[in-house]
Every structure is written in C-alpha cells, then in structure tokens.
Amino acid sequence: MEIKEEIRRSIERALKKIKVKKYPEILLERPQEREHGDFSTNIAFFLAKELRKTPQEIAKRLAEDIRPDPEIIEKVEETKGFINFFLTEESLFKNLIQILKREKDYGRSELGKGERIQIEMVSVNPTGPLHVGHGRGAAFADTLANILEAVGYQVEREYYINDIGTQMENLGKSLRARYLELLGEEVEFPEYGYQGEYLVKIARRLKDREGNKHRKEKIEFFTQYAHSDIIEGIKRALKDFGIGIDSWKKESDLRKKGKVEESLKNLKKKGYLYEKEGALWFRSSQLGDEKDRVIKKKDGSLTYLASDIAYHEDKFKRGFDHLINIWGADHHGYVERLRAAMSALGHPKESLDIILYQLVKLSRSGRPVAMSTRKGEFITLREVMDEVGRDVLRFFFCMRSSYSHLDFDLELAKKESPENPVYYVEYAHARISSIFKKAKERKRKRRKIQKIDLKLLHTPEEKNILRLLILFPDIVASCVQNYQVHSIPNYLRELASEFHTFYNRHRVLSEDEGLTQARLALVEGVGIVLRNGLRLLGIAAPEKM
RNA sequence: GCGCCUGUAGCUCAGUAUGGAUAGAGCAUCGGAUUUCUAAUCCGACGGUCGCAGGUUCGAAUCCUGCCGGGCGCGCCA
Questions:
Q1: Helix (H) and strand (E) counts for chain A?
Q2: Is residue A381 part of a domain?
Q3: A82 and A175, same structural domain?
Q4: How far apart, in whole angstroms, are the C-alpha atoms of residue A70 and residue A90?
Q5: Which domain holds residue A34?
Q6: Does A106 contact strand B, using a CB cutoff of 7 Å?
Q7: Cys-Cys link to A37, which of A50, A84, A345, A521 (CB 3.0-4.6 A)?
Q8: A357 in a domain, yes or no?
C-alpha cells in the first residue's frame, strides 16, 4: 500500500542519514492504542545492540530525522522506543475517495502478478455425502481462493476424485446389499460396507426406476451407480454452498493414461524405489518422512500414495506456478510422504503448500453430536446448510484460524441475536442501504465526490471509521501471506461495530446539506468495504433485514 | 509408545510467522440508552498465575527444554 511504502521509505532515508546500513525488514504495525498513532515500527529495538544505545535514544533520534510526505503523515513521535506515525486527515479523505472511485476493486491488487495457482479442495471420496467437516474445508479453501484472485493470482479450483480401489468396491457391495434387501432377498451386509442411510435411499431410487432387473448385476454396476449418484449429490451441495469447482480430476483417468506407471518410472530412475518382501517401496525416509512407504503391494496393486504422486506430478506438468492443497487434519500423516515424493521428482519444496484445517466439533446447545462416516452417523453439509443458512455457515467456518479445532453449535448459529456475528455485519450493511433508500425518497442524492467537503467529517466516530477503512487492502494482503482467512470476518465485525457506534451517535441525513453529503460519502465507503469483504467470504450483503 | 494440531477471561476465540508499549474481541452476567436514517443497535461495569515448571533475552502469550490436559493420525486400508 502506498502509505506504508512512503513511511517505509522515509525510515530508510533516516537510517541512511545516521549511517545504519544493515537492518531487518521494516515492519509497520497497527498499534493497539489510538494515542500511539496509526502505524508504528519497532526498528529501534533491533538497532540497539549494534549502535550501543538504548532503543529510546535511537528512536528519538530517528523520529527527528524521519520526514515522510507531510501530506500523508502529520506527526512522527517516539514513545518508549517505538516510532509512531500519525496520518493526516487529508490521507484519510484521499483513501475514502479511492474507495468510492474503485468500488468493487477497493482491496484488490496486483501482488500475484498473474501467476497461476491451483487449489486442490474438498476431494472427498465419493463414498458418501459431504459432512459438516468437509464444509469447513470447502468454505475455507474457496475463501482463500477468492482472496488469491483478488490480489492478482490466476486461480483454479480442483476436486480430485478417488474413484477406484477397495473403497469403491465396498461401496458397490453395500449398494448391492441394500438393493437386494429391498427386493426381499436375504443378504449379508458386507463387512466393510457403508451403513449410512443414504445408500438405502440410492437403492430405493434404483428400484423405483428400474425395478428388479439388476438383481444379477455385477458389483461394478452398483459401484458405478452409487458413485455417480453420490458425486452428483456432492456437486449439488457444493453449488448450493456457493462453491464453484473449475476442474474435476478422476484418479481412474490418471491410471488409464498411464500416468502412475510414468511417475513410478521417474522415481525409479532417480533411485528412490526398491523391492522388499515382494513389494515396491519408496525411500521417503531419506527425504524427511519417518519411514519408507509401500508403493506397489505384494499382490501387484498400487497404493493410494502411488496415485497421489502421479496426480501431483501431473498438476506440475499442467504448468501451475504454485500448488496449494487444503486437507483435513486427519490426513496430516500423508503430508511428509507426498512432499518427499515431490522433492524426489525435483519439484522445489516451496511450490507445494499443504494447508490443514482442523475438524469441526459439532454440538447442539452445548451437547456434542457424534459423527462416524462408516456407520453413517454424521450430519451432512446439506442438513446444516438447510438448518442455519448458507451465509451463516460460511461465515462461521471462516471466522477461526484453520488450525483451531472449531466448535460449532447449531443452536447458536441459528440464533438471530447478538451472539451471531454474521447478522451483526449484515445488519450494518442493511442499515447503510436503508439510509440511501431514505435519501432517495427524500430526493437527496450524493453529489460528486469532488463537490463534497470531507473536512466536515471530524468526530472521533467518523475518524475511527476512516482509519479502519484504510486498513482493508492490508488485511486482504496479510491473508495471502499466511494462508489464513479469519482476519476478514474479524475485520468486518470491527468495521460494522465502528459503523453501529457512529450510527447511534450521529445522523447521516440532516438539515445540514454539507454534512449530509460528507456523511453519505462516508457510509457509502463503509458499504463498499463491507460488500467487498463479504464477497470474499462468498456471502451476500443484504439490502434489508 | 511415536508424530501433527491445540491449551489465553465463566464460554467461543484473536494475538504466536518477524519476541517489544498497561494481553484484546464477541458471548454470558450486571447497570443504563430509543419522539430520529432499521434496537438484529449503542454506552458502561465486571472478568486474566496467557496449562505447569525451567531456560534464552534488556524484554516471552510468542523462542528452547521437560511435564500435564484435549483433538487427530500412526496398515502391503482408502
């Protein structure tokens, strides 16, 4: 952001003046206390040792020497070794003008320089519907993808389907058993079968449509039938959750095209494969994994890892500059072996990031809700979406760091009360819309921004809002830096809070035409930022509530 | 047993990447605010040995070591 850049440059000039050549990256933070200004740096602490002076002395000296553009920074001040910067009114107003001018684009940037990033998300095995936990991963991944797009990356969202293997066979066996059951035959349910109610429903659909003519059908038929039914359900659920997948990649296609054998050949050529006890092993322990892994089993069949290696190599071949995988934390054991394989194949470590999200602990009014996929005891994404609403769910899922174990209380999420931060943010937006609606009714229109005297915005509440608005692009950028998204909801709540405070103390539409105009510009700015933030989260900004 | 994540106010969590100012929110509780553009709002109060114990440092919620609690994972399953 240009303001931060200007401050940074002014610090560098001052450092040069006192002949400091080596210094760490200059960090500008937002101080907790208003009296400490808008930005502050702790650079003096880092220089203390080398210069053999106290941080206070250094900071004091620097504060005198730092001369940023007086149109942007009104005051530079030293306190307790920190150097604090105070923005001018003028820069706050300029930023508001920027917001009104750029509208949807405020917060967007070109940081990503058009690089191509692929995000692999959800990738849930097609053996059953998506459950709530998967929803968290989906919401998180989609939001991160939105943010990456906003800062100028070209993003592709991909879902990888494990459509072959033992699990699919078990799925087919399970459906067959359910189907035959419906036809009144005695059948034993397969040992590793999927017991969920959804398979009974699929069996019923099959029977209703086609009667008993599939009684003698092979397992493959049932596998195929269950698979496509479930995948269609997953696709619908994601669509209704507001998530668009650009590419669906099937494991079976990789196999058909010989990609797996090709990858194994590559690994072999580089000396990372060996045979032991009739199986083929990958020497992953040499590359950071805790032990070697089997790639091809004694019976000649390939492991999950074999496909995964081929899959990721294929992604690289498709020309992405960077790969991101969003995985549930229950897969963390696979991170190292996959990374090992990628470095064995010569792909730089930095080009693949695997971000884990912790599982969702679902409860209802404080009581935990049990979940187990195989037994079929779980709450689906669909059910929760229907119960609490798509937007609430997406907000809650993105509100916390992906590393924290999310506590999700169904009753709490449903409440339309102050306990629910989603409505709080949405309400701020609805109030703003309402102001404009009212203004229109009274035939009052916001003038062109050049004709508005923003200097009339001088109350603490107005200033607080302006100061917050200026941070938005930085917040978005920081999400990219640490691959987290929760600062967006947190920021939106803070902005909504500042707005509500302002709203309660001051009127926008008043007899004073000049002030009305200035305030209309201000709240329009808030509305734009709220909308932009909510859009990143995939949430609608309501005009009224 | 080993590995990953996690432990901050009564509850749910920010803050930990890059150590820095009196540790921040929301909810809950208590008290107050509405003739006004939406009270799904606002204002105030209460509330903390940052799991415990050491260490490094001028300075530790943040880094290191050990221990304790919670979640997840540890197959020639997928």
A1: 20, 14
A2: no
A3: no
A4: 10
A5: 2-86
A6: no
A7: A84
A8: no
Query: Which CATH number fits the domain that encloses residue A11?
Result: 3.30.1360.70
Q: Which nt sits closest to A412, CA to C1'?
A: B27
Name the residue with the least CA to C1' distance from nucleotide B24.
A32
Does residue A416 have a pLDDT over 60? Answer: no
Q: Are A298 and A278 in contact (CB under 8 A)?
A: yes
pLDDT digits over A272-309, tens only?
Answer: 999 999 999 999 998 888 889 999 999 999 999 999 99
Residue A335 resides in a domain:
no
Query: CA–C1' distance A356–B16 (Å)?
Result: 18
Angle at the Cα of A177 (from A171 to A180), degrees rounded to 5?
Answer: 140
H/E run at residue A482: helix A472-482
Which nucleotides of strand B lie within 7 A of protein CB? 2-7, 12-15, 17-18, 20-28, 33, 36-43, 58-59, 70-78
User: How many domains is chain A built from?
Assistant: 3
Are both A210 and A170 inside the same structural domain?
yes
Of A193, A225, A240, at which residue does a domain stop? A240
Q: Are residues A424 and A533 in the same domain?
A: yes
Q: Distance from residue A409 (CA) to nucleotide B6 (C1'), in Å?
A: 19
Which nucleotide is nearest, taking the CA of residue A519 and each C1'? B37
ipTM confidence: 0.95
